[in-house]
Amino acid sequence: MSDTNKVAVKLTINGQTYEKEVKPNRLLVDFIRYDVGLTGTKEGCSVGVCGACTVLVDGKMVSSCLTLTPMANGTDITTIEGIAKADGELLPIQQAFIDQGGFQCGICTPGQVTAAKALLDFNSKPNEQEIKEWMMGNLCRCTGYYGIIRAIKAASGQEVEPIPGASD
Ligand code: FES
Ligand code: FES
């Protein structure tokens, strides 16, 4: 029997369709993490500032902590678990995060990678200023952004400075 306090939603996440009933105020980040079990998407600030909860909704970058699940009804969502190719091969931007030292902690990195993918889908060769402006919604309070910027440049075929201190 359906719960009259809930609404039916149908979302496609990483190619799989989910039909569920949710409370009207169910946040998309909670739907993804707890109703579907895809815990790669993280919740940091909960107020749309840090970017940890970034997912792609119909290809567009969205803060899932600010999105009600019913607002995403009928959409096609990509989370960090669905960024790689269907056969599991990493996208160039994922590999570049590894190679260029862009990987940071498990809270910010999923959102950083997802935002970087969205950037390259929008602009295949962003300059450094464009990278900084696009990525300014994805915060890290502990390490830095040089590896991330290098990774985006490298993934888009641009020359990058050697990693400081790295031996060849
Ligand atoms: S948790 Fe959504 S932007 Fe920080
Ligand atoms: S918040 Fe992830 S490394 Fe700083």
What is the CATH homologous superfamily assignment of the largest domain? Answer: Beta-grasp domain
Low-confidence region ranges: none
Main CATH class of the largest domain = Alpha Beta
**How far apart lie the N and C ends?**
64 Å
Q: How are the strands ordered across the major sheet?
A: 2-1-5-3-4
- The strand count comes to 5
- N-to-C SSE string, H for helix and E for strand: EEHEEEHHHH
Q: Number of folding domains?
A: 2
Overall mean confidence score, pLDDT: 94
Radius of gyration: 17 Å
- Kindly name the structural category: alpha+beta
Percent of residues in helices comes to 25-40%
Can you tell me the CATH architecture of the largest domain?
Roll
Ligand inventory reads: FE2/S2 (inorganic) cluster
Short key terms for the protein model shown above:
alpha+beta; binds FE2/S2 (inorganic) cluster; 168 residues; five-stranded mixed sheet; single chain; 5 strands; 2 domains; 5 helices; Ubiquitin-like (UB roll); DNA polymerase, domain 1
